[in-house]
Amino acid sequence: MKVNKLAIIGGGNLGTAIAKGLLANGLLEASQIYITRRRTALLNEFLEKGVNVSNDNRLAASGADVILLGVKPYQLEQVVKEIGPELKAHTILISLATGISSESIQGFSSVKLPIFRAMPNTAIEIGESMTCVSAYNANQEQEDLVLKLFSQMGQALIIPEELMAASTVLAACGIAYAMRFIRAATQGGIEIGFGSKLALQISAQTIKGAADLLIQKGTHPEDEIDKVTTPRGVTISGLNEMEHQGFSSSLIKGLLTSFNKIENGK
């Protein structure tokens, strides 16, 4: 299945990050991509690259093989109904909205559609996203196409839809949690003598190296921790102090708080 036209309805932070990822990886020509936003002036960088920019959602959706919905959850029903006349039975609809089920999205449309929910994170802009995808009313060819699309911008996998809320917390919110860890490590680095730029460089590369070790070697975090902790050493002393201060428990509680916010809508 070939994509001749892809529309991103809602050119906010995530929508534009996806557009940058598509362009960077050469998945589509700029002329094949349409992005919409009310204030189109905020999309001038894409216009300069040859991307089609508009504030007309129906125009963008017309004839599109794949439509990504990058709008807020409360806007989703209105937008699907707005572009409804342009939707065909083969149109692949990908929702990036949190908390709205595929069944609900189908209910907004008079046409039975292949519907996907996808939750990338903002690292999609540089081809390093972890994207979780669920499929509804889709055939294998359509699933393969959507996975291929997101796999070119990082890692992607199909999960049961009931895990989408959890994937939002772990992958999409998770990138902010990781950033906060790097920020805290940077602040600590400043306290022990580094300038802020150098402390940030060291902290960020160290975290990148730690993640790559796990991804490339397939090892467990504790296996790698054991390699750098020695009896009465400085590493184990620091780790134990972090745990005494609630490091792991506070992170887990943060994840659960975000998850409950999605599940309960509060």
UniProtKB/TrEMBL annotation:
Pathway: Amino-acid biosynthesis; L-proline biosynthesis; L-proline from L-glutamate 5-semialdehyde: step 1/1
List of residues binding NADPH: 57
Matches recorded under Pfam families: F420_oxidored, P5CR_dimer
Coarse class of the protein's main subcellular location: cytoplasm
UniProt xrefs under NCBIfam families: proC
Source organism, top-level taxon: Bacteria
Record-level GO cellular component terms: cytoplasm
Database matches in SUPFAM superfamilies: 6-phosphogluconate dehydrogenase C-terminal domain-like, NAD(P)-binding Rossmann-fold domains
Pyrroline-5-carboxylate reductase catalytic N-terminal domain span: 5-98
UniProt signal peptide: none
Family affiliation: Belongs to the pyrroline-5-carboxylate reductase family.
EC number: 1.5.1.2
Entry function: Catalyzes the reduction of 1-pyrroline-5-carboxylate (PCA) to L-proline.
Keywords of this entry: Amino-acid biosynthesis, Cytoplasm, NADP, Oxidoreductase, Proline biosynthesis
Name this protein carries in UniProt: Pyrroline-5-carboxylate reductase
A biological process term (GO) from this entry: L-proline biosynthetic process
Known catalytic reactions: L-proline + NAD(+) = (S)-1-pyrroline-5-carboxylate + NADH + 2 H(+); L-proline + NADP(+) = (S)-1-pyrroline-5-carboxylate + NADPH + 2 H(+)
Keyword 4Fe-4S: no
InterPro entries reported for this sequence: 6-PGluconate_DH-like_C_sf (IPR008927), NAD(P)-bd_dom_sf (IPR036291), P5C_Rdtase_cat_N (IPR028939), P5CR_dimer (IPR029036), Pyrroline-COOH_reductase (IPR000304)
Binding positions for NADP(+) per the UniProt entry: 9-14
Location within or outside the cell: Cytoplasm
GO MF, one example: pyrroline-5-carboxylate reductase activity
Limits of the Pyrroline-5-carboxylate reductase dimerisation domain: 161-261
PANTHER family: PYRROLINE-5-CARBOXYLATE REDUCTASE, PYRROLINE-5-CARBOXYLATE REDUCTASE 3
